[in-house]
From TrEMBL:
Molecular function (Gene Ontology), one example: aminopeptidase activity
Family the entry assigns: Belongs to the peptidase M28 family. M28E subfamily.
Keywords annotated in UniProt: Aminopeptidase, Disulfide bond, Hydrolase, Metal-binding, Protease, Signal, Zinc
Enzyme class of the recorded protein, top EC level: hydrolase
Source organism: Pyronema omphalodes (strain CBS 100304)
One matching Pfam family: Peptidase_M28
Name of the molecule in the record: Peptide hydrolase
Residues annotated as signal peptide: 1-18
Length: 373
């Protein structure tokens, strides 16, 4: 109780933010995790098992902030300065697409067969739950696949970003000519209805992983050279454990003052009864989101649908918390997206690969446009 009171006092004096104090863990806190379900929630200390009973089984989004308290303080501070930060980002994005002729041959090179093959590879793991014994195997499979795709262009680097658990995030980088970076992201962990349950995670989110992997493949094969920022492909782990991988990475980028111009996250791309691409407008940069909406009709055969997904719905929230312009692109509205996620039923047979291919076209279009940022 002493430390909590002291923390409250310090925060009050410095005036950093007005959230409730972060609670201290009760007895035997060694394996407890501090998780929260809204911006104003101070969080509760729970076991890994309770993540399933309290949140995952009830479809409640949550963030595990145990390892990244700095990011949490930053998010709170940013919330108090929202008008300033929004204004500074407002003019940073073009009004529409300008590089279609350059993107066209790259988009023509996209392979729907690759999307399917790699989704099968990921879904074949019994689970990709980040705490499971399969997690390191899935990490090795994905790292090797990213390396093999990237080797067409020797200037591309691929690295593992290690976390406190045995499933690194994986980052591939096509070097540009400036110190800035643009990021496309997806998470490669999965989760079932319990920690030991089957979790193919075909739509959630193998379908997003293969989109950025195939985009990397065609850019690597063409030896694509960005005119401006470097292009990074982030394959996050631990998303289903409370955005763990993306929070670590974005906390690191913020700490090192990496100049992140945009983060476009895709989580679920293969199930779309309305045959749309959904772009979400909460916990994101609205200027970036507006720009992305102009790219959908330019680079795909689909219409844009706008929706909101709430607090902590996927990894874009970590970039937003770190103060970077971020956006979230998904297969359909919240209500009409895949009903099979977080279960053994999230199988490859439910994935519409023609729709996944549309997300890949969008992604290549975005990366070519962003390479001039
Ligand atoms: Zn997901």
């Amino acid at each position: 109780m002493v430390s909590t009171t002291l923390l409250t006092l310090l925060l009050g004096v410095t005036g950093v933010f007005a959230l409730p104090p972060i609670p201290s863990p009760s007895s035997s806190a060694k394996d407890l995790r501090l998780c929260k379900t809204s911006p104003t929630d101070p969080g509760i200390w729970i076991t890994e098992e309770e993540k399933f009973t309290r949140f995952i089984s009830k479809k409640i989004n949550f963030v595990d902030i145990t390892d990244t308290p700095n990011l949490e303080a930053l998010a709170a501070e940013k919330a108090t300065n929202l008008q300033v930060s929004t204004a500074s980002i407002e003019s940073a994005f073009p009004s529409g697409p300008a590089h279609q002729s350059q993107a066209a041959p790259l988009i023509s090179a996209l392979s729907q067969a690759n999307l399917q093959t790699w989704t099968n590879g990921l879904a074949n793991f019994y689970t990709r739950y980040y705490k499971s014994s399969y997690a390191p195997q899935a990490a090795t499979w994905l790292y090797d696949t990213v390396v093999s795709v990237a080797k067409a262009n020797p200037t591309i680097t691929v690295r593992k970003f290690n976390h406190s658990y045995s499933m690194p995030s994986i980052i591939a980088k096509i070097p540009g000519t400036t110190n800035s970076v643009v990021v496309v992201s997806a998470h490669y962990d999965s989760v079932g209805s319990t920690a030991s349950g089957r979790a193919p995670g075909a739509d959630d989110d193998a379908s997003g992983v293969v989109v950025i992997l195939e985009a990397l493949r065609v850019l690597a094969a063409a030896k694509f050279k960005p005119s401006g920022p470097s292009l990074e492909f982030h394959f996050y782990s631990g998303e289903e454990g409370g955005l763990l991988g993306s929070r670590d990475v974005m906390n690191d980028y913020r700490t090192r003052n990496v100049d992140v111009l945009a983060v476009v996250n895709q989580d679920m791309t293969g199930y779309s009864p309305n045959n749309v691409i959904a772009i979400f407008d909460d916990y994101v940069s609205l200027p970036l989101t507006s720009f992305l909406k102009t790219l959908v009709p330019a680079y795909t055969q689909l219409k844009v649908l706008t929706d909101r997904c709430g607090y902590a719905c996927s990894d874009h929230a970590s970039a937003t918390a770190a103060g970077f312009p971020a956006a979230y692109v998904c297969e359909d509205s919240m209500n009409d997206s895949s009903p099979y996620i977080h279960s053994a039923q999230d199988a490859v047979s439910t994935v519409n690969f023609a729709h996944v291919l549309q997300h890949a076209k969008f992604t290549v279009g975005f990366l070519v446009e962003a390479s001039y940022f």
